[in-house]
Amino acid sequence: MPKIAKKATATPAQFKDLSELLVGVVDIVPQALFEKKLRAGERMRLYLGVDPTGPDIHIGHAVILRAMRVLQDLGHEVILLFGDFTARIGDPTGKDTTRPILTHAEILENAKGYKQQAGKILDFSKKAKIPARIDFNAKWLDKLKFQDVMELSAHFTVQQMLERDMFDRRLKEGRPIFVHEFFYPIMQGYDSVAMDVDLEVGGTDQLFNMLAGRTLLKAMSDKEKVVMTFDLLEGTDGRKMSKSYGNIIGVMDSPAEMYGKVMSLSDNLIARYFHLCTDKDVAMTRAMEKRLATGELHPRDAKMKLAKEIVTLYHSEKDATEAELEFTKIFQQKEQPTEIAEYATTARKLSLVEIVVEVGFAASKSDARRKIEQGGVRLNDNRETDAGAIITIEDGMVLQVGKRNFVTLRFK
């Protein structure tokens, strides 16, 4: 049984403020209808759509998944919908350029581990009151004929599409907008019709797409769908947490990696992370903010507590304690990790750039050069800044890239 959902401590009728029940909610359209259904105990079918454009679910997704688990525990039907069709179009939301189009095989490969990851939060087991389930939107979108698409498109205007901020920005900057991108919100909207849902949840950046579903469901089934948006969590670089930006904290990250990523956050995100990513209540978060503001609490100590809370949620208290000890050893005492992975090579001499790429610490040679030139690479604790350096491999040599990546080089 998943253990990390924020459990409801009272019935919906006892909650004066929905934010006590569903942490991170920003807007509900229409809120009166949702509250009426919730407090009456009317069973709702709700879903979150995820395009598997990468293999990882991150703790930004988990803000929404944790709220879904609360609703699941209250007796509502939860669907995690994989956009194996819509991911082939590419959601233009928040993008200044067109997303690269993925193949169906690439999308399904990315989706393989999603159920296991989401299962850390949602309950897919038969023991659940109503087990969460997974669906794929290619099941119905692949069956649409061109005439069907024309009829769906007739419910929207070009002016509506151009009101979207990313399209408006691209027009002003003279960058292209491709016609297929207009179809994305229409296809996502049809998901609501196909599944006959009562509620769709998503980030605030998905409001336009989710309202498209509300429009289609009303027009085609005379049914009013509720749309619920959630706060967007910032990633490790301060931008919206996104697989595209490479700034995510994945729910499957190792305890040490998860702990280290949390510790790398800006101090101004500590309170938001406590509120959105842990089970700590609002009163505790506000009290901590005051202590940080007055200097009574050091940001490093607050982040260590935050990191331990998050690792405990996704792993265990034992794992969190060990991750904290390892972090202290590496970053405060400047020692190497207790366990370091090994990489064996038959080459006696390699360029430093090649080594960094080969061991998986850089995505490309240009990425490796950048890391070297910025001083992020060490060999046997000596900083290496020459991207053109040729290294003679010595058995047992320790390569460090960044603060958390270590490997022992073996010559065979």
TrEMBL record:
InterPro entries: aa-tRNA-synth_I_CS (IPR001412), aa-tRNA-synth_Ic (IPR002305), Rossmann-like_a/b/a_fold (IPR014729), S4_RNA-bd_sf (IPR036986), SYY-like_C (IPR054608), Tyr-tRNA-ligase (IPR002307), Tyr-tRNA-ligase_bac-type (IPR024088)
Enzyme class label: ligase
Domain Tyrosine--tRNA ligase SYY-like C-terminal: 339-406
EC number: 6.1.1.1
A Pfam family this chain is assigned to: tRNA-synt_1b
Any one GO molecular function term: ATP binding
Catalytic activity: tRNA(Tyr) + L-tyrosine + ATP = L-tyrosyl-tRNA(Tyr) + AMP + diphosphate + H(+)
Keywords: Aminoacyl-tRNA synthetase, ATP-binding, Ligase, Nucleotide-binding, Protein biosynthesis, RNA-binding
GO CC annotations, alphabetized: cytosol
Biological process according to GO: tyrosyl-tRNA aminoacylation
PROSITE patterns with a match to the protein in the record: AA_TRNA_LIGASE_I, S4
Database matches in PANTHER family: TYROSINE--TRNA LIGASE, TYROSYL-TRNA SYNTHETASE
Family: Belongs to the class-I aminoacyl-tRNA synthetase family.
Protein name from the UniProt record: Tyrosine--tRNA ligase
Species for this entry: Candidatus Kerfeldbacteria bacterium CG15_BIG_FIL_POST_REV_8_21_14_020_45_12
The organism's taxonomic lineage, starting at the top: Bacteria, Candidatus Kerfeldiibacteriota
